[in-house]
Amino acid sequence: MSMHILLHGGTIAGSARADILVKDGLIEEISPIIEPAPDVEIIDVGGLTLMRAFVDVHVHFREPGRPDKETIRSGSLAAARGGYGTVCTMPNLSPAPDSPQHIAIQQELIDKGAVVDVLPYASITVGRAGREVVDMAALKDRCVAFSDDGSGVQEESVMLEAMGRAASLDCIIAAHCEENSLLRGGYIHDGEYCRTHGHKGICSESEWVQIARDLELAERTGCAYHVCHISTAESVRVIREAKARGVNVSCETAPHYLVLCDEDLQEDGRFKMNPPLRSAADRAALIEGLKDGTIDMIATDHAPHTAEEKSRGLRGSAMGVVGLETAFPVLYTELVLKGIISLEKLVDLMSTAPGRRFGIGGTLEVGQSADITAYDLRSAYTVDSSEFLSKGKATPFEGRRVYGRCRLTLSHGKVVWKG
Predict the structure, then answer these.
(1) What are φ and ψ of residue 242, in 5° steps?
(2) Span 159-165, mean pLDDT?
(3) What mean pLDDT do residues 70-84 have?
(4) Do 377 and 342 form a contact (C-beta atoms < 8 A)?
(5) Residue 301 bears catalytic tag
């Protein structure tokens, strides 16, 4: 049975008031006024802002392996509630998606449980152990890209081999950049808060030194290279310089690095993630990178843990915070309403740009898949993690006053969230 939906009375972000007619999962028509046929379900979106559903190229759904932290079902429901239509799941799973057999285990869970498009990464190395490059040719049609996220590939020779293979297969390498020899037991940023509160710090070099190494390798091989969750001013600088040289590189940062810094830290596990919240100067450099196009996209690095794992303060808690249900409201409140970037720019960073780079998602145009989200931008409320659909509740934005409530998300023309 074909499904016809008319989204009536909304306003397209950065544009004019428009009705959107959805037929068989596709956008059939966009016009100021569309007269509905008798078989059309009308959804009133008057007063709401319509956007292409967001694309997150960096989430952790923990399944297979740790369904107590998150499942494909709970994670994709959280994504829908946040306005996301497509998410890409990172490979720190058990088993790691390092072979067709292993990625098939995850794909079966996706087919069964996902309410939005969930696209898996395959790992760069076997078991994510950093030693032996996977059979990329056997995996490329089953994954969105290759990553060992959760850890950096330490051996230059291994990354060089991976990039060479990825270049020949026209695949993206998405790298978590972290030089283990520079970590020295640190767990928050090596800055003022760290020193005055007796913690062990993670230096900025541990991130940008490996990015600089990889940029040279990407330049040498011609590999399409993507840098995950950048957090430091130096990372922005080396990527900006590489782009100017013509290196095929893109990068992402996460909402918490754009809104918070180490001056905002509290002795609470909900402020602990990897990379850590950096200095105010790093935060300012990231915002500059957003504005000048050095940073291509925003991804949440949604990383749920159990309440117990996040209850041990900064020192003892697991690293990672959730973000799918807060990303747009937090960024709209802190960046758009404060005049730092436009709403259209935010939609590009959260939807169009990641879709473009990874060949997924799309645009809000006739003929495209009807992946649409509708937000009430005037709705003000306080972030309350007890309302989250994610199993993870640890957010540094708990209790923050924000604007923007997701009222509707469509995935391929099907209503997957209504709030």
Answers:
(1) -65, -40
(2) 98
(3) 98
(4) no
(5) yes
